[in-house]
Amino acid sequence: GKPLSAWMRELPMELEDATNSVAAAAIRQIGVKGLPYILRELRQKDTKPKELLGKCNDWLEEKLRLKLFNFRLTLERRCVAFIAIAALGTNAAPAIPEIVRNLDDPEIVLNNCYALAVIGLPALPELRRLAQPTNAKTRENCASAFAVFPENEEAESVLLSLTRDKSQRVRQIAVFSLS
């Protein structure tokens, strides 16, 4: 069959569509053996020249309908990786310690918070811990990630506590995630 990287390229970019797709079923079939590759994708960062090239490419495609390069920026690759983790669901729980280590990097923290959220209940203690620090940006990312967390009373209580946060932005995101 196809390698994991090919299945990940076929994942729809919408979480709801992706989890029921043929590609997601194939990723579930590959299972935890695919976690090292998925986690590598979740850590990816673009070099500044590639980032600039990507922006130029997007501009050319938008304005002139001309695409010079066919590559994925790492932001998109990280999104696909979090969607692949969503396909695995709680089976991706062994990845939690590595995902938590990625949370120290501001460039990749949001996708990693989302990855924790789509793992579900096994990741709830880590998300609860992230809701506590004094860093407002970490609390924002955590509140945002709860938007994709499976319905759960304990998760809702964490979000409710974030609606009373001292940061207005955290409060707004928490309210949005509750809706």
What descriptors fit this protein?
12 helices; 179 residues; mainly alpha
Describe what you observe in this structure.
- The protein contains twelve helices and no strands.
- The protein has helices at residues 4-10, 15-19, 22-30, 35-42, 48-64, 74-88, 96-102, 109-119, 124-130, 136-145, 153-162, 168-178.
- The protein is mainly alpha-helical and 179 residues long.
- α6 packs parallel to α8, α8 (109-119) packs across α10 and α11 runs antiparallel to α12.
- The mean pLDDT is 87.
- 36% of the residues are buried.
- The longest helix is centred in the first third of the chain and has 17 residues, at 48-64.
* Main sheet properties: none
Strand percent estimate: under 5%
Global morphology: globular
Task: Kindly state the percentage of residues in helix.
Answer: 55-70%
